[in-house]
Task: inverse folding
DNA sequence: ATCGTTGCAAACGGTTTGCAATTCG
DNA sequence: CGAATTGCAAACCGTTTGCAACGAT
């Protein structure tokens, strides 16, 4: 049985008495199609091109809605700005972020997760989520001949 | 031979042709004495109480100077804001951050570091630094009878 | 005296909010 | 119809910056 994000989203909306609007659909679709992490501004720029009526505020509001509902994740880029990715059928993973070109490479390690669990337990800390970001230079930006 | 942060800082300053000012000393001292991670605003508030002449801009400027020189570290709190800690004679460590009271608990794991190295190597990624933050509730805030 | 540094206040940039108009259910 | 949602523009808030006065060397 294939998961259909749009359907799931609609269900969530109606279950909360919220409405399914064109803007919310556009934004979810954009996020689902995006191959990389997108910033609210990129999102606004791209969707607004096709639908000039869309406002910036709606992008932010919807992104929060998606994040709160567990449909999206946000990461912090090196400059502190946020970028989002959807969470449909994607296993948990963390990120390596290139400080030069902002490329994002995903990684995950069951061992790290296990150690984390152990560490939090030792400190009687109840983990909710975590952020493990490695900053550096990607293959391309670190290659010789580029300082 | 004991390390004397203030001396080291003075050396760095003069080696760069920068000046050793009262404000810079106050800020470094504050950071050294702080037992927890401090935000620029806390810093400004506290130091400004004793020295009303100190301005907010100087706090930010000095914090950047300290970070760039490797004397301080910054972390992002759950709300995206920054907080700083000094780096004198402190081994590398990461953080668990309480989403309720913003308490910060430090942790470190040689195993995690090792795995990270291996992962970056696999992706031909040249790491510069990383941020590993676990968000959740500290012992106190997670205890029953609260929420 | 020189040039880095400071405080101030204005500018910034990303995000949020108040509100009247609009749209979904 | 009535409540939720939207776009707009103004408000926010942490941070940065331009500038004239100041201060360390």
Result:
């Amino acid at each position: 049985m294939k998961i259909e994000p749009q359907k799931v989203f609609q269900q969530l909306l109606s279950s909360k008495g919220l409405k399914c609007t064109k803007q919310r659909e556009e934004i979810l679709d954009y996020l689902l199609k995006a191959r990389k992490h997108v910033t609210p501004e990129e999102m606004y720029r791209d969707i607004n091109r096709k639908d000039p009526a869309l406002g910036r505020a709606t992008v932010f509001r919807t992104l929060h809605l998606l994040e709160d509902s567990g449909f999206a994740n946000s990461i912090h880029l090196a400059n502190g700005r946020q970028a989002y990715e959807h969470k449909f059928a994607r296993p948990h993973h963390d990120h390596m972020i290139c400080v030069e070109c902002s490329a994002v490479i995903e990684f995950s390690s069951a061992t790290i997760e296990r150690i984390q669990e152990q560490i939090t337990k030792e400190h009687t800390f109840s983990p909710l989520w975590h952020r493990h970001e490695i900053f550096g230079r990607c293959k391309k930006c670190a290659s010789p001949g580029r300082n």
Observations:
- Chain A has a mean pLDDT of 91.
